[in-house]
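Milestone M4 deliverable, item 7.
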Amino acid sequence: MSRKPNLAIVGATGMVGTTFLKVLEERKFPYDKVSMFAAPDEDGKTLTFDGRDYRVEGISDQSFDGKDIDIALFSAGGGPSEHFAPIAAARGILVVDNSSQWRMDPGVPLVVPEVNPQTAFEAFDKKRIIANPNCSTIQAVVALKPLHDRYGLKRVVYSTYRAVSGSGVKGIHELSEGLKGNDLCSAYPHPIAGNCLPHIDVFEENGYTKEEMKMINETHKILDDDSIAVTATTVRAPVFNSHSESINIELKVPFEVGDVKKLFADSPGITLKDDPVHNVYPLAREAAGTDEVYVGRVRRDFSVDNGLNIWCVADNIRKGAATNAVQIAQLVLDRVTA
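Output delivered:
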């Protein structure tokens, strides 16, 4: 590509959509033109990006015609992605989709740039769609990748404590109101203020929630290793932003804790915060608004051979969604312009 790409943001008015714009601007992502799309009832709204005001268009089957769009960042939900992503891809547009619609499609790469960047380029030969993983899976596999490469992973046990921003504006509103004493139960089956709800998405026949199965299946796909035993419990916590995870890991070979800490400190995308004597460990409030994956509480699990415990925190709207998508777009752009 000899020119700067033309971009499209689909779902531009949503929480992740507006964060797309913020991250693109912060990272000075190269572009020529930007088109912004949202649901038809939001047609005509105005969004500001990079010092200019843009009119939001209600999306339709003809939205991608005549605009010479190169890259489209989608965060409009599974239904719109299922319908509109193939339309965009058929016009030669590279789609990076933040919904769960395409993640487990065998013809669609599921990409975290720090973990499996090479798979992003498969999109050119297949559907021209790249899937953004689940927010909790993204931060987890960033932490697991160096361990997988160095020691091998035998078993992983996820316990995630997810912020209400993962439920969008409705979740934030319910926690805000609950903290004022006004319990609401629209986003969740129980009040979230003062509660931890072990229930994210619907329960499946096996007793796991859909969100738990996403983490299990996506970990296998991203790390390209179905031999890893993975289980998960996902919990909604009364925190506004940033997901926290306790990850219990069984490695295939022996390790030294000091070596693991150095490995984390030297790995891309990870910031090690591990000085418990001085109360230093990853915190949701400190992760909010940043793009790093924070790892701490690194310690041996004495209950099993080669067992390890870590605490992992990241901003779920940025690294868990918008930033990861922009990183994917940059990864592909760098390849085609090299």
